[in-house]
């Protein structure tokens, strides 16, 4: 992977089909990225990418229903390429996801992180998220072509939440 040097300008926009090739690494696999893009196309989710120097350097998704902490939207799948980290791109992606949630009237944003992922917990805490309790995260891998479930499992996570409006 090439090192980006100083990122001067980062654009955050909705993900496009043409981004798929650059998203596989950040989403875990191209199939996973495609399933997320399909959900965004159906309107079930928002999928946002950060673009710097014409290259996709970050991604996040927000699911409107059936998240880890209903009725709040669920922010998931946040990743920034290693060479572009610690420059505010993760924060900007979370902020854009929150703005999309607020625009739909959401009171709060929720997410879940693996209980042993101290770096992610620290990152989200820095952005104002607070752990509200444990969660058993059920994940499923889906074939984007057929919709068939190809793998599934569970993970122990913390639910973290941040109010988007009002006072706790
Ligand atoms: C977590 C991740 C998205 C952060 O992206 P990033 O662009 O490097 O984050 P930012 O530069 O916007 O950092 C925002 C704040 O969080 C802090 N932060 C970032 N990464 C951190 C880490 N690993 N540990 C502690 N704090 C961290 C930054 O110092 C910054 O704080 P500041 O306000 O004092 O400047 C990125 O490290 C990543 O993609 N990790 C792998 C995937 C992952 O863990 N995703 C989240 C779990 S689903």
Automatic annotation (TrEMBL):
It comes from the Bacteria. This is GNAT family N-acetyltransferase. Keywords: Transferase. Residues 10-165 form the N-acetyltransferase domain. One of its GO terms (biological process) is mitotic sister chromatid cohesion. GO terms for cellular component: NatA complex. The keyword Transferase applies. GO terms for molecular function: N-acetyltransferase activity. It comes from Verrucosispora sioxanthis. The keyword Hydrolase does not apply.
